[in-house]
Design brief:
- By secondary structure, the chain is an alpha+beta fold.
- It has one domain: 60s Ribosomal Protein L30, Chain: A, CATH 3.30.1330.
- Helix content is 24%, strand content 24%.
- It has five helices and six strands.
- The strands form two sheets. Strands 3-6-4-5 form a four-stranded mixed beta sheet, with helices on one face. Strands 1-2 form a two-stranded antiparallel sheet.
- A hairpin with a 6-residue loop joins β1 and β2.
Amino acid sequence: MLLRTCPAVLPVILAFAGPAQAQAIERFERHATLPIARTVQVPQTAETLYLSGEVASPIAAAGAHGEAPEFGDTETQTLSVFRKIERTLRDRGYALGDVVKLTVFLVGVPEKSGRLDMDGFTRAYVRYFGTAAQPHLPARSTVQVAGLSQPGYLVEIEATAARSGRAMLGDLARPAPSHD
């Protein structure tokens, strides 16, 4: 509002502000035993994208006699979820290397006496994070849950991505919308 009523203010603000400095996202300390970052620091100037929980796509459709669709084991579902997350990130101009935080929900499986299949999850996870092609590791939490939104789902993952470089004063330089 101030800029619309007093346009001479913008050059003064920009003169004192100096050039906007892009601050890098910093990943500190790889966890001692897991392929994750212990902490990730995102500067205030970064753009942040929050992805809602994503679940696997079916590997086999529901049967004609009412059988539930098949989604595969933990590893198969995790690969499906990461493909979907990667596609969503790409559609928004981000990449897997921009992921700074993952929250992973895993359902226990009978072959692990009702415990989550961390080995299956990890086999899929390390194909996407900490690789030579994509070395960035996110901070991550993994929890076991009793169930997810549909029978057969074993994996749901929420992701937060951030990329640095957005100038904080960029919004000030944009003209105010006209209400004429």
